Amino acid sequence: MTSQMPSGEGASVDPSIPKRRLSLARLRRIPLPVRIGAFIVGVLILCAIFVPLFSADPYQLNFANILSPPSFAHLFGTDENGRDLFARIFLGLRLDLLVVAFVTYISLPIGLVLGAAGAYFGGKYDTVVARLTDIAISFPFIVLVIAIIAITGPGLKGIMIGVPVVSWALYARLARSEMLVLRELPFMEAAEVLGFTKRRIIFRHGIPNLIRNCLVYSTIDAMGNFLLLAGLSYLGIGVQPPAAELGAIIAEGQPYLLQAWWISTIPGLVIVLFGLGIGLIGEGLSDSGLVT
Amino acid sequence: MLMYVIRRLLFCVFVVWALATVTFVLVHLMPGDPVRLALGPRAPQYLVNAERNRLGFDNSLLTQYFSYFNKLLHGNLGTALSLGASVTYILGQRVIPSVLLISYGLFIAVLIGVPLAIISAVRPNGRADHGTRLFTTFVFGMPTFWLGLMIDLFFGLKLKWFPVSGYSSGIGGLFRTLTLPALTLGLSLVVLVTRSLRFNLIQVLNSEYIEAARSRGIAEWRIVLIHAMRNAVMPTFTILSAVIGFLIGGTVILEQVFQIPGVGSLLVQAVLNRDYSLVEAITLLAGTSVVVASLIADMLQAALDPRVRLWR
Is B292's Cβ below 8 Å from some Cβ in A? Predict the structure, then answer.
């Protein structure tokens, strides 16, 4: 965390100071693992966006060409219905990433604001937030999400409701613990003395200084949500067929594990690659001391 | 001390109550008739009505809520409509395989994770350290069901060392059927063990009492394995014991891959059959195990490490 001293470097939240430009020299200072990780994640995201636009139809059945191994015509082979796996896998990745981005980045602002405001105001409100956080963290995450799916029926709705119900709490806890420290710093007192509104102090001066750790944590959280989504779809209670989703494709390929290894193996490798990228980013950032 | 334990216990009760209420409200808000679902679409209406009456679905929501808690406090979790047996009985049967799988998995995680953590902490940023960290980063993003499938493909289908899936009791049967799932679970937990133990071990190895031990000429392996480990394992131990709670029911996906009749596969079955009393009961069981495990973790930590004072 950048320390906020009244003199010296100047607070990064001060709008009068121009934002530092993204230069090659600054880019070099980013640790190597983070750069590699960002590259992997970036390439996969680009593939997820663009491959389905140009590839074969992912829903096109072709019973003359089932279970064919990877070749130039079908880069990742075809599945038991003759559908092109290259197209299906990246379409599935696109769906996964969209859902994961939704559930992760809807929880983050909720937790962030609740936690930061709780720590800033203190007193009864803080106690309520802290207790609610404790309770939500004590909920058995996977089981609760599945229980919600039991009620909403198999599909994405259960995940989109169930995940944010619990995962805001971790951001709230992170933001709260940082705000408790931040609150006592001179620049926050200065903001108060200047008579800024509470809303302005929290949103303009508090949150910009504590959002960084939450953002870094959110990459790991997103990976967890990705695995959960793929896992639930694997179980058959997440994304429903014929929609393409990585976990569902792995489940579809399971009976053909010996005849057609590529159906289950390749989507798994895509998930592993994505996880590797996220892991490298997270590990590199926490190692370099960029985040506390 | 006593006050602290009481406060924590009250919190546990509160969490379980909150969870029970949340699931109760969710289940009763949803549309559709669970009795109709259980009896099938061709059951005559008078039978459905009688059954509804018997199970108390006709009472007001508040009455149902109180009677639900009344039964809960007497240890009665209701009847699993889809299986036609009492929930307590079914759960009792299903808990054992899950618990065995989890303990076996933890054992493997410690068996692999601790040596890895030690070799990587002894020389931070050395070659072994980089290898270990690459390995854990790699495993971190692996879906457990996919890892399970790959392990299955290799040890089950290609080498034929272990059966691909299933479950049988008895020591030999358990070893044969649980080794592959436990290996999968263990590998996914290795990340947790290695990361936290490595971090703490590096910190402890830099402390002054280790310096003092070195200057007394104690062998390096003794310093690492005995003097440093004693202080470094505590946080890992705490994390693991807290994780156990999340694993009850959290091994859903793994149990489904290997067809183990545990709590997790029961949960999936219950969801697909829309058996709400079963879903409610498993959610409660999982929640209870989470809070109890974290309570025990804190207590153990305080009991084993004199520096930890939870009460002040």
Answer: no
Q: What is the dihedral of CA B228, B233, B236, B238, to 10 degrees?
A: -140
> Hey, are the CB atoms on B271 and A144 less than 8 Å from each other?
no
Report the alpha-carbon distance of residue B260 to residue B257 in Å, rounded.
8
Q: Give the DSSP per-residue string, B150-194.
A: HHIIIIIIIS-SS-SS----SHHHHHHHHHHHHHHHHHHHHHHHH
Q: B175 or B149: whose pLDDT is higher?
A: B149
Give B60→chain A minimum CA distance, Å. Answer: 20
Q: Which one-letter DSSP state was computed for residue B251?
A: T
Q: What is the DSSP letter of B255?
A: H
Helix (H) or strand (E) holding B148, with range, is helix B144-151
* Non-local CB neighbours of A178 within 8 Å, separated by 6+ positions: A1, A119, A209, A210, A213
- Residue A3 CB neighbour total at 10 angstroms: 10
Task: Give the 3-state DSSP-derived string for chain A, with helices as H, strands as E and coil as C.
Answer: CCCCCCCCCCCCCCCCCCCCCCCHHHHHHCCHHHHHHHHHHHHHHHHHHHHHHHCCCCCCCCHHHCCCCCCCCCCCCECCCCCEHHHHHHHHHHHHHHHHHHHHHHHHHHHHHHHHHHHHHCHHHHHHHHHHHHHHHHCCHHHHHHHHHHHHCCCHHHHHHHHHHHHHHHHHHHHHHHHHHHCCCHHHHHHHHCCCCHHHHHHHHHHHHHHHHHHHHHHHHHHHHHHHHHHHHHHCCCCCCCCCCHHHHHHHHHHHCCCCHHHHHHHHHHHHHHHHHHHHHHHHHHHCCCCC
Task: For residue B141, list chain A residues with Cβ-Cβ distance below 8 A.
Answer: 223, 227, 271-279
Question: Which DSSP symbol is given to B74?
Answer: T
- Residue in A closest to B242 by C-alpha: A138
Q: Which residues of chain B neighbour A255 with C-beta distances below 8 Å? A: none
Q: Are A60 and A73 in contact (CB under 8 A)?
A: no
Task: Note the pLDDT tens digit of each residue in B238-290.
Answer: 888 878 888 887 788 888 888 888 888 888 888 887 777 788 888 888 888 88
Residue with tokens 């809807």: A106
Sequence-ordered alpha helix ranges (H) in B30-126:
34-39, 45-55, 61-73, 87-122
Query: Is the sign of the CA dihedral B152, B155, B156, B162 positive or negative?
Result: negative
Chain B: closest CA distance from residue A62 (Å): 27
Strands B85-86 and B79-80: antiparallel
What pTM was computed for the model? 0.84
| Chain A contacts in chain B segment 45-74 (CB below 8 A) | none
Confidence of residue A5 (pLDDT cuts 50, 70, 90): very low
